[in-house]
Write a structure and sequence with these properties.
By secondary structure, the protein is mostly beta strands. It has one helix and nine strands. It has one helix at residues 10-27, and strands at residues 48-59, 67-71, 86-94, 103-113, 120-129, 138-146, 152-160, 167-178, 183-194. Strands 1-3-4-5-6-7-8-9 form an eight-stranded antiparallel β-barrel. A hairpin with a 5-residue loop joins strand 6 and strand 7 (152-160). The protein is globular. It starts with 9 loop residues before the first helix and ends with a strand.
């Protein structure tokens, strides 16, 4: 047997809707996880394009390595590309190719041999700057680096500090490479849009 439910009048529905809406407006609570913002409210003004030039010093061998192997493929892997090898780096970035020149930052992250057919690295790193107006700011790189190519292009996928919302690319050119020690100096030209 059905129970008798009270009748809901249109007036009651209208009042309920108004009260619900005014409660939402008064508390200001929005249960959505996103909202649209004005770039000006975040202090973002006109976007600019900057060019940075520095030298990356990657020392795998020698007395003071700046990159260390943390993983490698099983001994059964006889790949000439070191496929499966993973290194963690904390490489100095300098103004000139000499390690004794002015330190402008550090390249911190990982690179892994990700190709079986050529020496192709997957690089995930941050350029952490410590000089001039970019001191404390970073640029994030995520991309493929075929180190035997004359020029490699790596994407800049973000940044922090003065490089918030950054995007762009980096051109890498090997300046010197010591095959025996596996140490390299790489010239970087970075072109980045940022605010």
């Amino acid at each position: 047997m059905a129970k008798n439910l009270p009748k809901v009048t249109p007036t009651f529905l209208i009042l309920f809707t108004i009260l619900s809406f005014s409660t939402f407006s008064a508390t200001g609570k929005n249960h959505s996880f996103s909202r649209t913002l004005s770039p000006a409210k975040l202090g973002l003004k006109r976007e600019k394009l900057s060019h940075l030039h520095f030298y990356f010093h990657d020392a795998v061998g020698g007395r003071n390595p700046t990159a260390v192997r943390v993983a490698e493929a099983p001994m059964t892997n006889t790949s000439s590309t070191s496929f499966g090898g993973v290194l963690v780096m904390d490489d100095p970035l300098t103004e000139q190719p000499e390690l004794s020149s002015k330190l402008v930052g550090r390249a911190q992250g990982i690179y892994a041999s990700a190709s079986q057919s050529e020496v192709g690295l997957l690089m995930a790193l941050n350029f952490a700057f410590m000089e001039g107006k970019y001191n404390g700011s970073t640029l994030s790189v995520l991309g493929r680096n075929t180190i035997l190519s004359a020029v490699r292009e790596l994407p800049i996928v973000g940044g922090s500090g003065l490089f918030r919302f950054a995007r762009g690319y980096a051109h890498a050119r090997t300046y010197t490479f010591d095959e025996k020690a596996q140490n390299a100096i790489v010239e970087y030209n970075v072109y980045v849009f940022h605010y």
